[in-house]
Amino acid sequence: MAEFCAILGDQIGYIAPYWIVGILIGSAISVFAKAKIGRLVEKRQKTGSSFFGLVTASFLGILSPICLFGTIPIAASLSQKGVKDDFLSAFMMGSILLNPQLLIYTSALGYNVAVIRFLVCLAGGVLFGLLARFISREGRFYDFSDINGKQRDRDTHPNMLARYVFNIGRNIRATGLHFLAGVLLAALFLYLVPDTFAHDFVSHHQQAQVPLMTLAGLPFYVCGGGAIPLLAGWMQLGLSTGAAMAFTVSGSATKITNLSAIKTVLGVKKLAVYISFVCFWALVSGTVINLLPEDCARFDPPGGEFHMNHQTGHHYGK
């Protein structure tokens, strides 16, 4: 039990600062910049070139810290103002795949991994925008008829500091249990599974890592905050960065809350297109990442590796 507590303590001590900083920055953007993000998406479509407009829309989606249930009403409002479906698709896919809080949290796996994840999500938003442009040539890609007028902004306190503090509290309540569950599961994995067994399993299935983790993300990904500690433990034992990114792409886009939200504006047939695209992009991006030079895509947590080897009692070092 002492060894397990030591592993758990290492996990919490290393991961928690990224979680806290991510919440502080995400809440700041939500409170002080949420409305500006929507206006920038609308403005960019009117003033920017088609392709770079999609890049900007995807970037602004990533910059938005709002969950999909909050993003869809924003997209519905933008649609009413004439923003096209391809821009909305890039914006929403960027928002689905990543947010500032999760990007900072991903830095616990290495700053290079965080940059790779950002680029993968940015490109995913652009490609989904292009797909929506192709499909919407024959009609609208989204149906916002049941959404318009139902947006509810919870950041309404007249005092901006109080509004920020309340937003932080909601973020902690929304992600805290998932964070603790992820850390606990990661510690249990590191404690119960022998390092030699996990390493041998991973090394003997190198070619299958990306497709396996793409499929694993569909049912097992619950929350981005809970996934990071698990990925850290798996990558410590040899899981490739490409496979880890495939898990985050397929998982974040198909977790049950996001699927239920996106279905309200897509319908069944286009939901199948959405899921197919997500799996395709997870496979392609994960495979490409694994082709990068090792120094670019290796697991490189800041400050060194952070869990205790429960078999030897010693900390791993770089």
Summed up, what is this model?
This protein is mainly α. It has one domain (2-297).
What does this structure look like?
75% of the residues lie in helices and 0% in strands. It is mostly helical and 318 residues long. It has one domain. The longest helix has 36 residues, at 256-291.
Question: What are the salient characteristics of this protein?
Answer:
75% helix, mainly alpha, 318 residues, disordered C terminus
Topology:
Layout: H1 2-32, H2 34-47, H3 50-63, H4 68-80, H5 85-97, H6 100-106, H7 111-135, H8 160-192, H9 195-203, H10 209-220, H11 224-236, H12 241-254, H13 256-291, H14 294-297
The chain-level mean pLDDT equals 78
> What is the tally of beta strands?
0
Number of domains: 1
> Structural class given helices, strands, pairing?
mainly alpha
User: What percentage of amino acids are in beta strands?
Assistant: under 5%
| Series of H and E elements | HHHHHHHHHHHHHH
- How much helicity do the residues have? over 70%
**Any idea what the shape is?**
globular
**Terminus-to-terminus distance:** 26 Å
Give a short account of the largest sheet: none
Low-confidence residue ranges: 306-318
Query: Count the helices. How many?
Result: 14
Oligomeric state: single chain
Radius of gyration: 20 Å
